[in-house]
Amino acid sequence: MVKVYMYKGCDTCRKARKWLVEAGVEFQELAIRETPPTARELGEGLSGVDGAMRRLFNVSGQDYRKLGLKDRLPEMSEEEAFELLADNGNLVKRPFLVSPKGNYPGFDGTAWRQLLA
């Protein structure tokens, strides 16, 4: 089954939820703050964004700025970055789609359509 990690106060998440419902996609919605994606799910999402680690992060969030990740992220190993994301759902780009064909951070109707076809 398709899983989507979302935050209830996120406009993009609401847009994605509406898109999924209108497309007739059955999905499990998970609260991204309380239940962040696993390191494995995040790793599989990295391939969906051509290996650009920064695209897994919510770069406009307060936690990202507070932790100084703009400067720290380029020096982090994948393992360190995945552990940080899996421990703090506020850092994860949302919504985060997990599907049998691949995972994807953020909402992109074209990318999601390909993964859900």
Strand content: 15-25%
Q: Given this structure, which CATH class is correct?
A: Alpha Beta
Summed over residues and divided by their number, the pLDDT gives a mean of 95
The number of distinct β-strands equals 4
Radius of gyration: 13 Å
Query: Which topology does CATH recognise?
Result: Glutaredoxin
Order of H and E elements? EHEHHHHEEH
Architecture per CATH nomenclature, i.e. the level-2 architecture: 3-Layer(aba) Sandwich
Largest sheet: 4 strands, mixed
**Based on CA inertia axes, which overall geometry fits?**
globular
Task: Tell me the name of the CATH homologous superfamily.
Answer: Glutaredoxin
Structural classification: alpha+beta
> What is the terminal separation in angstroms?
13 Å
Our count of domains comes out at 1
- Portion of residues within helices: 40-55%
Strand order of the largest sheet: 2-1-3-4
